[in-house]
Amino acid sequence: MIDIGLSKMALIGAVALIVIGPEKLPRVARTVGALLGKAQRYVADVKAEVNRSMELDELKKMKDQVEDSARDVQQSLQAGANAFEKDWADAVGSTDSAPQEQSAVVPAYRHPGKNWRLKRGATPRWYKARNGVRSKAQSGAARVARHRPKKSR
């Protein structure tokens, strides 16, 4: 970089004052400052772009390494599973002399099904009944019929 000290800056300022003149010097100084600012921003943008491209290349390399290692693990697991299934079939086939059913029917998983209308908790039913807490869901018509005033004869 250029080493410009205070004395050199004063000399440049004096020459500029003489050559340009005192009327135009502030405008020229503003223009030079704006151009230097644009140049610095341009250099900073170029540096940032270079850094981004280098990081992108590093990330691509890491991604390839992770994919390769995942593929290796998957292949080793498949090989181990195949060997286990073969050993299991050999062990089951040699110990059981009775014929087995070919397809064991396993029931499909069924979610227990939560009824969101009913509040389930640690409160006993007798306490809920005494205090009038609903323990069963009712339709709108059933609720109206329940709370309708009794007819007097």
From TrEMBL:
Record membrane topology: Single-pass membrane protein
Keywords recorded for this protein, A-Z: Cell inner membrane, Cell membrane, Membrane, Protein transport, Translocation, Transmembrane, Transmembrane helix, Transport
Comp. bias intervals (Basic residues): 112-133, 144-153
Subcellular location: Cell membrane; Membrane
Residue segments, region Disordered: 112-153
Pfam family, one: TatA_B_E
Domain of life: Bacteria
Similarity field: Belongs to the TatB family.
Purpose: Part of the twin-arginine translocation (Tat) system that transports large folded proteins containing a characteristic twin-arginine motif in their signal peptide across membranes. Together with TatC, TatB is part of a receptor directly interacting with Tat signal peptides. TatB may form an oligomeric binding site that transiently accommodates folded Tat precursor proteins before their translocation.
Oligomer status and interactors: The Tat system comprises two distinct complexes: a TatABC complex, containing multiple copies of TatA, TatB and TatC subunits, and a separate TatA complex, containing only TatA subunits. Substrates initially bind to the TatABC complex, which probably triggers association of the separate TatA complex to form the active translocon.
NCBIfam families linked: tatB (TIGR01410)
Protein name: Sec-independent protein translocase protein TatB
Species per Swiss-Prot/TrEMBL record: Verminephrobacter aporrectodeae subsp. tuberculatae
